[in-house]
Amino acid sequence: MADSSDSKKNQSGGGCFRKLIVLIILLASIGIGVGCFFIAQKQDLSDIGGYGPVAKATPVRDLRVVLRNSIDRGYPVTLTETEINQWLGRTLRTKQGGLLAGQVSLERLWVRLDDEFAEVIMERKFMGKPFTVSMFLKIEQIQGPREAVTEVHLEGGPYDERLPFPTRGGRFGRLVVPQGFLLLVLPAFKKLPDLFHEEIDLAFKDMARIKIKKNQLVLDPKEPSDGQSGLPQSF
């Protein structure tokens, strides 16, 4: 009788364990399905400056000239999100016939500016259906003995202030993904600096101070005059 009772307990325990495994697999499958659904959905771009028909009617400044004048004359310049996206739309069309000639799915490149970080978004088409991928960029400047050193980090801060890890890497469609997932799209983004080599040098290598604000990129070619050389500073 004791053996029969132990056998029933083992069967009951084994049955609960199998049910638990099935439940975990079911929840994981639902999670993957929901994730794939949001990945397939193009993220909402309507909040980005320069998006929509009204912005197309606004004159587009040549940012290369604006940046060069700022450096040559030594005054700070503020680029709005709208100006950057308008310039990207015009410039990318003229350069797409070269390096990106084979990537006909690339429709537009967008930049969303928030406090302390930027989001670079590639809008593509696959079999006629639009989709988006993006990565967050955070700029840090460390003041050295002679000049500030600019570093670009591929992250957009933590998901929650109470949980510093994992950090947000970007978005696949409408789904915000951790930083490690950027390895899947990094090769495509690595081609972009070659398209805007001169502008990137002017904006990030030749500027002494860089600050990302909500809808604005503030650049200053003048070194800080507060006498704090050698102290690390984040912008």
Low-pLDDT sequence parts: 96-101, 227-235
What is the arithmetic mean of pLDDT? 80
**Strands, count:** 10
Structural class: alpha+beta
Descriptive overview:
- The protein is α+β, with helices and mostly antiparallel strands and 235 residues long.
- Helix content is 37%, strand content 30%.
- It contains seven helices and ten strands.
- The chain has helices spanning 2-40, 53-56, 63-73, 81-95, 186-190, 192-195, 197-205, and strands spanning 77-80, 106-114, 117-126, 129-143, 148-153, 158-160, 163-172, 175-178, 209-213, 216-220.
- The strands form two sheets. Strands 2, 3, 4, 5, 6, 7 and 8 form a seven-stranded antiparallel beta sheet that branches. A three-stranded antiparallel beta sheet has the order 1-10-9.
- α3 (63-73) runs parallel beside α7 (197-205).
- The chain is globular.
- Mean pLDDT is 80; it is low at 96-101 and 227-235.
